[in-house]
Specification:
alpha/beta; 6 helices
């Protein structure tokens, strides 16, 4: 894809596709399927070597994905997103790792809470899957917040 084509394209982060399907992955898969039917959207996902382990997938997301999508707008529909990417729209399903840290293991909280904060702060825009989530986001994010419900 040429750099000119990238400027008019939204790249859909498909790294969620190799996870077990729960609510976030189902949301991302359903929305992706519809978006990718348009010429304005293109998909990118880790392949080959990068899929050998969870750590390699996360490395791909943080290092390779931002490089691959430079110049384009990146759409990440789950928390599997780069921690720092100014041309990114991040979908936030909930803020539980920030608001209820006791619900998670210590390691999960220590890794995912800072990652979610960084994703939100660096995003060009944020999509919330509910009004309550959008209201919570407003306290930590000053940019545009769009509500796109799960159902």
């Amino acid at each position: 894809m040429t750099s000119t084509a990238l400027l008019s394209t939204v790249v859909v982060n498909q790294s969620f596709a190799m996870q077990r399907v729960t609510g976030q992955q189902r949301y991302a898969a359903e929305i992706s399927q519809r978006l990718l039917a348009s010429e304005t959207f293109t998909a990118v996902a880790p392949r080959g070597f990068w899929t050998r382990s969870t750590l390699l997938v996360w490395t791909w997301i943080q290092v390779v994905l931002p490089w691959l999508t430079r110049g384009a707008m990146l759409l990440s529909m789950t928390s599997r997103a780069p921690w720092w990417c100014r041309r990114q729209v991040v979908v936030v399903h909930d803020l539980f790792v920030l608001t209820n840290p006791g619900w998670f293991s210590r390691l999960y909280h220590l890794t995912h809470a800072p990652l979610l904060r960084a994703q939100i702060r660096s995003a060009a825009a944020v999509v919330a899957v509910s009004e309550p989530t959008a209201n919570e986001l407003a306290s930590i994010y000053s940019g545009p917040i769009v509500v796109d419900p799960n159902a």
